[in-house]
Amino acid sequence: MKCDPGVWHSRSAILKPHAFRATETPVTASENVRPIFVMSSPRAGSTLLRRLIDTHPSICAPAELRLGGMCEYFMTALEVTLGDGTIERKPLSRAACTARIRKVMDEWLGEYCRLHDKKRWCDKTPLNIENIVYLRAVFPDAQWICLHREPRDVVSSLLEVQYWPLKRHECQPDVIAMLIAQWCRTTERLLALENTLGADVMRMTYESLVTNPASELRRLWRFLDVDPEDGMADEAFVVRHSEGPGDHNVAWMNGVRRDRVGRGSWIDMAATPATVQRRLETLAASLGYQCV
Predict the structure, then answer these.
(1) Half-sphere exposure in the Cβ direction for 244 (13 Å, CA)
(2) Cα–Cα distance between 148 and 276 in angstroms, integer?
(3) Could you give the CA distance from residue 44 to residue 173 in angstroms, rounded to a whole number?
(4) Which end of the chain offers a freer environment for a tag, N or C, measured as fewer CB atoms within 10 Å?
(5) Distance CA 43, CA 119 (A)
(6) pTM
(7) 198: enclosing H helix or E strand
(8) Within a domain: residue 291?
(9) At how many degrees (to 10) do helices 173-197 and 5-12 cross?
């Protein structure tokens, strides 16, 4: 599937004027199996989901690989070296640079999968949303999972992690407004991804995942076209997973917990600018959330 940068620019302002234009870099699908990407806001439950996915006997889901930034930096490095027009031989085209990046990724992550006796790999990195155009250019055959969570719960969780010394009454309204705006910005990009990729993308919500994990995982296995596996929601907390960037609290859990749903009900948005509140309400409503 080709990426239309114009669509991305109009839908989510994701591209800058000088940004990489994916339509200039056609890459054929890899001979290897399809990559998987989990896209979400920070603190939306992506670490929990990646451990559940990693438990499947066919899929490796390591800690955050941050492949989006890697692809962007790799592309820049190739273009200013092998793609430099000042060298004597013909410089690498953008398509050739993109293909070279994919080859490196396939060799590296293919070896990782073989070491674990699995076939596919999955990267869950919230920051990948910042480099989505590069990812789509390098991995045109990927499958995407967009994971959403109720905005006040996301804000509450971010406050616990990033501003943990503060009591609730000490949280400044401008900090809450900033985090709400951040959720809106990421959600707009996730919805743009969903509206663009059709059958290659699946929407999930944190609330459905923790409320009925077995059902949501069956739906996920069907989407990924892998053999259905029962008991993953329990086994995920028994088997060993790679450690690294992500929510380290999940490693201490002994099962899927529902008690984090609704934890952000205390968030007071009275001081949030009206424009941000309207933006929030529109986005939340499109996902079935009520933020009043």
Answers:
(1) 13
(2) 18
(3) 21
(4) C
(5) 28
(6) 0.81
(7) none
(8) no
(9) 150
Q: Is residue 292 included in any domain, yes or no?
A: no
Only one residue has tokens 């968030």, namely: 267
CATH of the domain at 112: 3.40.50.300
Q: What is the number of residues in the chain?
A: 292
Can you tell me the distance from the alpha carbon of 263 to that of 209, in angstroms, rounded to the nearest whole number?
16
Q: Which domain holds residue 128?
A: 5-286
Helical segments of the chain, H only: 5-12, 46-55, 67-79, 94-115, 132-138, 151-162, 173-197, 206-211, 213-224, 232-235, 274-286
Query: pLDDT of 231-284, one tens digit each?
Result: 777 776 667 766 755 565 655 566 567 777 778 778 777 778 888 888 999 999
What domain count does the chain have? 1
CA distance 140 to 223: 17
Residue listed under structure tokens 């992550």: 109
C-alpha–C-alpha distance, residues 120 and 114, integer Å: 9
Structure-token pair, residue 92: 């690498």
Q: Taking the mean position of all CA atoms in its chain, how far away is CA 140?
A: 16
Question: 3-class SS at 244?
Answer: coil
